[in-house]
Amino acid sequence: MTTTDKKQVARALLSAQAVGFSPQSPVRFASGILSPVYVDNRVLSFHPQQWHIVIQSFQNLIQAQNIIADVIAGVAVGGVPHSAALAFTLNIPHVFIRKEAKGYGKQ
């Protein structure tokens, strides 16, 4: 990822208020790790211009590294919009990974 892409992604995340800083009251992740910085990527879909910058930067990185992918996968639920958008821009199939197998509908 170029320095320009990195700066654009940082600006996009800040503009979308997807980044939080809380040194006095760190956020506890599901893993148990405490962090003074938190990135909430879920808010990006509410900010299409910023979201486009982030997805475009991932596309640029994949193409610059000559990464060949047959499919893009996202983790349910928070990762699905981003992986779907990236797969769409790359014109390749998209799948997502559930925490547990669903017990209803088409399997």
Report on this model:
The chain is of the alpha+beta class and 107 residues long. The chain has one domain (3-97): Rossmann fold, CATH 3.40.50. It has three helices and six strands. Strands 1-4 form a two-stranded antiparallel sheet. Helix 1 runs antiparallel to helix 2 (48-64). It is globular, with a radius of gyration of 16 Å. The termini are far apart.
Summarize the structure.
The chain has 107 residues and is of the alpha+beta class. The protein has helices spanning 3-15, 48-64, 80-90, and strands at 19-21, 27-28, 34-35, 37-39, 72-75, 94-97.
Tell me the number of helical segments per DSSP (H or I, 4 or more residues long): 3
CATH arch. level architecture: 3-Layer(aba) Sandwich
Q: How many strand segments? A: 6
Radius of gyration, in Å, reads 16 Å
Span from first to last CA? 38 Å
Biggest sheet record:
2 strands, antiparallel
What is the residue-averaged pLDDT? 93
Tell me the CATH topology: Rossmann fold
The ordered string of helix (H) and strand (E) elements is HEEEEHEHE
Number of self-contained structural domains = 1
Strand arrangement, major sheet = 1-4
The secondary-structure class comes to alpha+beta
- What global shape is seen? globular
